[in-house]
Amino acid sequence: MSGATSFSFKVLAECRDASARAGEITTAHGKVSTPAFMPVGSQATVKTLTPEELAACGASMVLANTYHLYLRPGVDVVRRFGGLHRFMGWTGPILTDSGGYQVFSLASLRRVRDDGVVFRSHIDGSEHLITPERAMEIQRGLGADIIMAFDQPASYGQDLVEVQQATERTHRWARLCLDSHVGQGQALFGISQGGAFPELRRRSAEYVASLGFDGYAIGGLCLGEPKEVMWAMAEETLTQLPKGKARYLMGVGSPEDLVEGVARGIDLFDSALPTRVARNGALFAPSGRRSIRNAEFREMEGPIDPDCDCYTCRTFSAAYLHHLFKAEEILGLRLATIHNLRFVLKLMDDMRRAIAGGDFPTFRSEFKSRYQPTNEQARLAQKRGWLVERHRGKL
Amino acid sequence: MSGATSFSFKVLAECRDASARAGEITTAHGKVSTPAFMPVGSQATVKTLTPEELAACGASMVLANTYHLYLRPGVDVVRRFGGLHRFMGWTGPILTDSGGYQVFSLASLRRVRDDGVVFRSHIDGSEHLITPERAMEIQRGLGADIIMAFDQPASYGQDLVEVQQATERTHRWARLCLDSHVGQGQALFGISQGGAFPELRRRSAEYVASLGFDGYAIGGLCLGEPKEVMWAMAEETLTQLPKGKARYLMGVGSPEDLVEGVARGIDLFDSALPTRVARNGALFAPSGRRSIRNAEFREMEGPIDPDCDCYTCRTFSAAYLHHLFKAEEILGLRLATIHNLRFVLKLMDDMRRAIAGGDFPTFRSEFKSRYQPTNEQARLAQKRGWLVERHRGKL
């Protein structure tokens, strides 16, 4: 057991007809009602927003990226502030990822060794080695409430042998992370991998669960694979995870995926999608995503979403938001981000209430009949395009 | 007289040893204590900020650009909202410029005729004609509290004949603007021109003042001319303006220019400088401008300016702001904008108090001994570079 004394998770309500559950995570910086969505603040800021705005959107826990913060501003700077909370002005719970995913997807010239990964910074080309022990040390310096084991995610499309090697390395590293974990108020979550291979997914989850982490993440999904593969792999993994621990599906997501993830018993999610698409002008509405740049909004005096209680919808017309995007004004990026975050955070609220009230299956089917997800072909093309651009350092 | 019944201006205190004065402008949307600085919201948004943030910075009146809003979103859209106040969510006073300066500096293929200017939109190349009458009609649709006469500013470096022609045209247009001004709660200010020619400046001010506007602007300055020329021309103009009317120096400015303008009896200023340089990472501090990107800020736990009461300085360290700029995060642009606006708006506050308290000359000399202005050569090079880039449509 990794043993962070201030950390706990308990299930408060379970859905009779599905695996959905509502619960509560307790950390030294406050409680998180689950299922919960974590906005992503890669560089110690959820893009465009202040901490107060994040809280007003209903965020309870935010995610920050170890890889980014390790390179810039550097752990030494964050440590001077006693950790990320004071540095970024967010007083609630924080989770840091381990950097594994970013090292494998953003850094160049990486060399995977059994003891860690050598890579070059995408910022200045400098060479770095991150080992499981170093990943723990860095995350200790960043001071999040929940930290993640250092892992090697497999890309979608890699063959069985490659994925097997990456998964076994992930397992060895998981043990090393646990061994070097100090605790000090930080909970440590393990990450299971296994690519798109059901048997490997099950074995990975079983092994990682046997090590006794404070919680468990499903890694290596939502990376360009078809949705049915994603859900099949998540389901394989979930069969092996202990019910009494928090389960975290990394990199999800879109409103429709949040609902499907909750239905399968996921407690925690993170994704940059709601904030990223917001900056592209794609706003969540009850019937699905809408582009605020569309001419239909040019003269619309009402808000984007009349049911929404966010600052943007309470204060400004769709026409004004349309104007800000057409005129490429930064305020538009802020207002769209606020709306999309509030939309997914309110969705989580609604799901928690539905689970507690015993009518989650009705909520889920009503949501599905109402909300039109992005077309699967378009989604995959966008996602893969984004992964390529991201790798080229454009994002 | 143009006769907006809800508009008035009164001088409340005068400085014994200088021309500085403190006063109050009353509009249908509230009062403005003068001398006042107006943040610039060219496209119906002060870049990066919400109306609440603007108010928290101490802004009382904002400026919006007729040229920009006429082209996008179009007057028809703003008129649906009953004007800019509801469209942009700013409930305080608003001033719109006439579009003259933008037509002459931003639009391409312009043809100046005696009745107006034909130009092509810098956005889509469409052809437009703006006459003095049309400028009044557009500004009526935008619904600001103070609107400006349509003028032809002269560029620094133009010869006497050119400037004379532009000034005479400005005079004819001023009369036409007054003739077609409806009032309806809108005050109309006249603009005097005259380039860098003292005699022309005096004659222009005298003529425009004779027409009986609600207030008077000094146009065509702060456009790349040396500072001594700017102040000499402003002084020539001021000799001819009635003391009982508000005097507005367009396009100023920097903290040091605001102090010098107030010393000469200016009541109103506008400039995009504080917000523009903020987005470049240049922050106002008691001793002058500092670049937040400098390494000296990398680990600084205190705020940029310990004396500042703005949200940025109350909430975040200089190190965090440094990090945001290095990481090219939008939140950095917001926080810097808030700080710079608060800095100049508090400076105006301090000056109003000093004038009322009878110790403005002391305030001015203390400010001068403390605040190091940007080097004049560097300033002119930056300003001219900016004017060129702006004309090329990069800004």
Short structural summary:
2 copies of one chain form a homodimer. Chain A has 395 residues and is an alpha/beta fold.
Number of helices of chain A: 16
**What is the radius of gyration of chain A?**
20 Å
Q: How would you sum up the global shape of chain A?
A: globular
Report the top-level CATH class of chain A.
Alpha Beta
Strand order of the largest sheet of chain A: 4-14-13-12-11-10-6-5
What does this structure look like?
The structure is a homodimer of 395-residue chains. Chain A is globular and about 60 Å long. The mean pLDDT of chain A is 94. By secondary structure, the first copy, chain A, is of the alpha/beta class. The two termini of chain A are 38 Å apart. Helices cover 43% and strands 19% of the residues of chain A. The first copy, chain A, has an 8-stranded parallel beta sheet. Chain A has a 3-stranded antiparallel beta sheet with strand order 1-2-3. Chain A is built from 16 helices and 16 strands. Chain A has one domain: Queuine tRNA-ribosyltransferase-like (TIM Barrel), CATH 3.20.20. At the A-B interface, α3, α13 and α14 of A face α3, α13 and α14 of B.
